[in-house]
Amino acid sequence: MNDNLTHNSEMAHHYETNARISIPSYDALFGMVQSYFRAELNGEVGSVLVIGAGGGNELTAWGPTNPAWTFTGVDISEDMLKIAKFKTNQLGLSSRVNLIHGTIHDVPEVDAVFDVASCILVLHFIDKVQEKRELLKGIHSRLKPGAPFVLVTAYGDRDGSELKDRLHVWRSFWLDAGKSPTTVNEMVKTGIMKISFMPEEQIEELLQDSGFTHITKFFVTGLFGGWMCHAGSHSVDSE
After folding, report:
1. Are 124 and 195 in contact (CB under 8 A)?
2. Cα distance between residue 120 and residue 208, in whole Å
3. Where does the Methyltransferase type domain lie (predicted)?
4. Where are the chain's structural domains?
5. Which terminus of the chain is less hemmed in, N or C, by CB atoms within 10 Å?
6. Mean pLDDT in runs of 10 for the chain (239 residues)?
7. CATH class for the region spanning 3-231
8. Nearest-5° Cα angle at 223, 217 to 224
9. Whether pTM exceeds 0.90
10. Could you report the per-residue pLDDT of 139-164, keeping only the tens digit for each?
C-alpha cells in the first residue's frame, strides 16, 4: 500500500472510531436509514443524494447491498472526499458513485432529480440559520416530489438543562473509551460547544419552511437526533 493509500486508510479508521464513540448507535443509524429508503423505494432503482459524503460511510453502508442505487456525494472537504474515494474504490462502487467537491449549489438542479437524500452530521457545523435554510431548500429543490429525506444533527437548547444532561451522558461515552476527564473537558470546550445547536422545534420549523412534510423524529443518541420527512411540491419560495 503506497503512502497516499495508507494515509487515507488511517484517516478513515480514525474518523470511524471517533464517530462510533460519540454516537454508540452509529452503525444502527445507517441500518435504520437504509431500511427506510428501501421501504420507500420499494425495490426500484434509486438515485441517492448524500450531503456530507466525505467520510464515505453512507456509500459503504448502502452501496454493496443495494446494487440498483446510484450515489451523488457532496462534501466541502477534499481530505474527507479522499476517504470516500478510498472506500468506494476498495468496494468496487466507483461506477455508481459521483463525488462532488463543494456544496449543494455545485449539484446541478437541471440534471439531478433524486429519489432519496440524506444529510447526516452536517447541519450543526453551519452556524447561520439562513445558511442552514439554504442548504435544506437546496436539497429539497433537487428531490422528486414526495422523495424521502433524512436529517441527522446535533440538537438542543444551548442554555437548557436538558442539553446539559445529554452532554453529561456524551462525556461518559468518551470516559468509558479511555479518555481522561481533562481531555474530555477540553473536547467539550474546543469542539462540542463550538458547533451550532438548535432546539428540535426550530429544526422541524426549518424543515417545514424548506418544503418538507410528514416530519418525524426517529432517532436519538446522546447529543444527536434524526428526522425523516418527504419533499413537498416545488412551489416553495427558494429565496
Report:
1. yes
2. 18
3. 49-148
4. 3-231
5. C
6. 56 80 95 97 93 93 96 94 91 96 89 89 96 97 96 95 95 96 94 94 98 97 97 65
7. alpha beta
8. 35
9. yes
10. 999 999 999 999 999 999 998 999 99
